[in-house]
Amino acid sequence: MSKNIERIAVLTSGGDAPGMNAAIRSVVRSGIYFGKQMFGISQGYQGMINNEITPLNSKSVSNIVQRGGTILKTARCMAFKTPEGRKTAYENLKHHKIDALIVIGGDGTFTGAEIFSREYNMPVIGIPGTIDNDLFGTDFTIGFDTANNTVIEAIDKIRDTAASHDRLFFVEVMGRDAGHIALWSAIGGGAEAVLIPEKETHIDDLVEKLMVDLKNQKTSSIVIVAEGDHGGGAFKIAEKVKERFNYDTKVSILGHLQRGGSPTSFDRVLASRLGQAAVEGILKGKNRKMVGIISNRIEFTDLTLAIKNQIEVDESLIDLVNILAI
Ligand SMILES: Nc1ncnc2c1ncn2[C@@H]1O[C@H](COP(=O)(O)OP(=O)(O)OP(=O)(O)O)[C@@H](O)[C@H]1O
Ligand SMILES: O=P(O)(O)OC[C@H]1O[C@](O)(CO)[C@@H](O)[C@@H]1O
Ligand SMILES: [Mg+2]
Question: Is 132 part of the annotated catalytic residue set?
Fold first, then answer.
């Protein structure tokens, strides 16, 4: 039996992602639309423990749909992993009479939400907000599209200088455990090769491919390396490749700029749809679910499944990189 929900709190947690603000805005305004009182928690679970919980109205979320980052701020909070930390967090929620929680984040955020919800019988819905696109139960996570656009803009620029100097560039993109950004940006940016955490890194094969390219008058190349690849990252791979043959080689680490910037239209619309669906879902009694989009339809998936069954890498995308790089 679901309890009557009148006061809903929202937080963002883990790494920030462009479009989180659009999701916050949608959650807050959808809640208000249904006559509910809405609250924002600062700095993810840290703010729950520190009692940083404030009411939000329609105006609180104006002029943010276009902004990167998160107005609620975010954090990685070790204390929430302890029963004592979660107890303090619960007492703070109780003090504010919060009936339900909407958490925007990635797999870690959902793990914490699942545990907390069971411990304290707190209804919770997760919204996938991470540039990594590594959650099962949604075709896309909020921020993935914007990050890809940021990366291909960088690749296009690097391509100009690579071609002018006949150079080989290793471009390292984010993805500690997931190669989705690497794969998508390799296709969109026309890279010659891609190295991802889901696959073994074979330097021999890479060197052979680059040598064939050189023989075929391809005088510059771009290799996309996900930060979590098994070769140890772009610098190490570049070193190993340089030992093997003579090619003017440079490394470019894109880093945290991939997490910033104004969200694309796709991410804004996705975030707005998921925010509204999260509120409607929780008011209809859904609990411990992630709201996602599958084949352009809103779908709810158990948080435990969303976390555990990370999307497998699409082999056809790897094939496509290779086919288009002949
Ligand atoms: N086992 C756990 N128990 C309780 N809380 C957890 C647990 N795992 C993660 N959390 C909470 O969730 C927060 C966010 O998790 P994490 O830092 O892994 O980021 P994420 O949500 O996976 O996002 P991203 O991977 O996109 O950065 C953690 O800092 C912690 O507060
Ligand atoms: O520097 P931070 O905040 O720990 O984030 C790094 C990690 O965050 C992610 O970008 C996800 O947001 C991962 O791909 C990356 O490894
Ligand atoms: Mg994560």
Answer: yes
